[in-house]
Amino acid sequence: MGVTVLQQFPIVENRTGPLTIDVLTKRISALGAIQQGQFLVDCETYTSVPQLGNQRTVHVLHNSEQPATVFSILETGTKTIPLATDGLFDLLMMKMNSFYTSKKLTKAESKGPRFEIGDFLVKLGSVTVSQNFKGVLVEVEYKPCVVPAMCWELMREFLQGFLGSSVQSSPPSYLQNRMQEIYTPIDTIHQYLEQFTMYRKTPGMRA
Amino acid sequence: MDRDLEQLHTALNSIKVLRSNVGQVFETVSSGLRADHGEEGKENKFMLELQELLTTVNNNLRDVETSVSSLTPPPGPFNLANTTYLSQETTQERQALYGQLVNSYKWTDKIREYSTLAGNILATNSVNKTYKTFSTTKRRKTQTSNHNVAPDVIENLITGIDRLFPDVTITAPRPFAPNPIIQASLGRVLKAIIAFKGLMIEWVVVKAHSESNDLWTESRYKVFRKVTENCHAAMCHFHSPTMPELAVRSFMHWFHSYNTLFSSPCKRCANHLHNNLPPTWRDLRTLEPYHEECK
């Protein structure tokens, strides 16, 4: 598991989502990338019923890169508690139906092709929130390195190589506070949640 | 003694000349009349040639006689020390030993001669790139063997290196072994599994921290495979048979420069990536980062 940077790719006017993915696919293939299957990251959000007191939110996420793991992030309002469990957690959430109800309309997912190029892993995901297309998320993982501070410059150079000027000069806000820490899969999940939350808030497509 | 040897040499030499000239006489006689004698008076020419050759042989014979007469026969019997008893050996299979002994003596003598020559030539043309001086006082201090040393010498060297670089952590699963295998972790960047043969570095594999400590499987990441390759090159470059400790130390010093593997751009092209790889080469002298293609 290496450092992963997630960023959204702006959709130009009169270009659809699949077309944007197509353009990016062509660009990355021209650089020598080889497609290695598909990927899927999904997120479902549950909120506690009023009887439990303070409202709490649980985000349950799956990442096809870690297929046997269910990630969940509990927001109590003051604290954020991440949790990585095995697949049974999904069944547990179903049992807790009466305490935590799912907001079906907010089920978000990002899926699309997955590429390998050198030691990099590139995923081009089209984001849908409750089946509505919202935008394009590009995930780039540099597998050999585990400390974001060490390889951010290198990753930025790679990102700029095929995304062009839409790459920011500073790391994603989630990573900024954790530049010196060892990167773990839950950090990727946090980044996805951050992006999904923004997609959910914006009506229509996110430019 | 020296004069005796010189006379012996001249005598042997004159015998050699005589033999070669006699050989020439027989050759001329056996080939008979040749085309280059022409048509007119060819028999006369042939006779003249033969006469000339025979005169040379005569002269040579006289030389041999004079040089032999000036030789002094060695006083008393030759002293062959213990080897004389070999000739008195009665068992059949050991009678050949004396010949073998002489052969091997000649062989060692030749080796000595050639190695002195080679040593002289190599000393004047410095082919190895390791920075060292050939001073006799320093040379006397080094061990004669660098692959058969006491385990605690190696152990001391390893702990010394461990202390030298704060961000290199060295762990040895079996310390005090004659040929230890150590794991050197370089910060949070990478780790190297280094196998020693005495004081020589015999094998290096570079891997990610998450990978196994196996010496035989290479890393699954391209960048670490490339670094492994470069480590092998450096290992050979720094190898120095006369100063093994220095070789290990300079290798580790060079290896330490990989702590900026992901963070420092190439010195030549100022980019981080080339062929989707960071600068995987470190200059052996300046330790500056370069891409494989930029160095």
UniProtKB/TrEMBL annotation, chain A:
Nucleus keyword on record: yes
Keyword Plastid: no
Molecular function in Gene Ontology: transcription coactivator activity
Gene Ontology cellular component terms for the protein in this record: mediator complex
Superkingdom of the source species: Eukaryota
GO biological process: regulation of transcription by RNA polymerase II
Any matching Pfam family: Med20
Protein localization: Nucleus
Keywords, sorted A to Z: Activator, Nucleus, Transcription, Transcription regulation
Family according to the record: Belongs to the Mediator complex subunit 20 family.
PANTHER family (UniProt xref): MEDIATOR OF RNA POLYMERASE II TRANSCRIPTION SUBUNIT 20, UBIQUITIN SPECIFIC PROTEASE HOMOLOG 49
Known function: Component of the Mediator complex, a coactivator involved in the regulated transcription of nearly all RNA polymerase II-dependent genes. Mediator functions as a bridge to convey information from gene-specific regulatory proteins to the basal RNA polymerase II transcription machinery. Mediator is recruited to promoters by direct interactions with regulatory proteins and serves as a scaffold for the assembly of a functional preinitiation complex with RNA polymerase II and the general transcription factors.
Subunit structure: Component of the Mediator complex.
Protein name, entry field: Mediator of RNA polymerase II transcription subunit 20
Automatic annotation (TrEMBL), chain B:
Main location as per UniProt: nucleus
Keyword field: Nucleus, Transcription, Transcription regulation
Superkingdom as given in the UniProt entry: Eukaryota
Location of this chain's protein in the cell: Nucleus
Keyword Nucleus included in the entry's annotation: yes
GO molecular function: transcription coactivator activity
Any one cellular-component term (Gene Ontology): mediator complex
Example GO BP: regulation of transcription by RNA polymerase II
Transcription among keywords: yes
InterPro entries: Mediator_Med27 (IPR021627)
Coiled-coil segments: none
Protein family per UniProt: Belongs to the Mediator complex subunit 27 family.
Protein name: Mediator of RNA polymerase II transcription subunit 27
